[in-house]
Amino acid sequence: MIELLKDLEDDLSEMFDIHFTKHELLDEAFTQASYVNEHPHQGLKFYERIEFLGDAVLQLVVSEYLYKRYPEMPQGKLTRLRAAMVCEASFSDFAKECHFDRYIRLGKGEEKSGARQRPSLLCDIFESFIGALYLDQGRQAVEKFVRQVIFPKLDEGRFDHIIDHKSELQELLQRNGEVEINYELISETGPDNDLVFTVQVSAANQVLAKGSGHSKKAAEQNAANKALQKLRNRN
Question: What PROSITE patterns does the record tag this protein with (predicted)?
Fold first, then answer.
């Protein structure tokens, strides 16, 4: 298992430039109770306590980021957006993207039952890793990691079902009066069963951005999102 921990540390170093100083924290964060129960004389700890801390840290870091990024978004929508980002489905996806599923220490029964790919376990492991990172290196390291892994998903449109970028863009552009905003379909590519639509959004006869999606609505949302990013970067 020392070799497994070494491989995990190598992966963290290569992917995220993360280097743990307290290796026992990382060991604890990736150990399930079933493994501890099968090795009672090794004095091992399992992840549940450290997961408890990681959950709280993630809630705070994501909440602060959303609060600052969307200054006009009402509390109810902020809450729904955070719930979509900080949930089992999202965290299990993030864990797999980070290769965390490769390094979980499981008991033989749990391994045979397919627990390694169980969303609830992957979610727990993601949270416990955050807890370990926080204890080892502090909040700044957690924020750096989350900015690499979670926040880019907003720009990729993963949570567009919560955020209405078109309404947000309209509110931003019309703060000082009416502005005509137009969405124009400029291309359709791909086979009929997998079409990709490309749309450009313009305001006051000026093209702001282009976006793509597998429906016209998704392409418009993507274009609005890109326009918002450009406008925010100017300020």
Answer: DS_RBD, RNASE_3_2
d(CA 82, CA 76): 10
Residue 193: DSSP 8-state: G
Q: What is the pLDDT of residues 51-81, one digit of tens each?
A: 999 999 999 999 999 999 888 788 988 998 9
Number of domains composing the chain? 2
Picking from 104, 135, 154, the residue at the C-terminal end of a domain is 154
Element (H, E) at 23: helix 23-29
Its pTM stands at 0.74
13-62 per-position pLDDT tens digit:
999 999 999 999 999 999 999 998 888 888 789 999 999 999 999 999 99
What number is the average pLDDT over the span 116-126? 94
Which residues are known binding-site members? 51, 124, 127
Chain centre to alpha carbon of residue 158: 9
Catalytic residues: 55, 127
User: Does pLDDT of 153 surpass 80?
Assistant: yes
Domain span at residue 59 reads 1-154
Rounded Cα–Cα distance for residues 173 and 202 (Å)? 11
Chain CA centroid to CA 14, Å: 19
| C-alpha span between 196 and 173 (Å, rounded) | 27
Annotated binding site for Mg(2+): 51, 124, 127
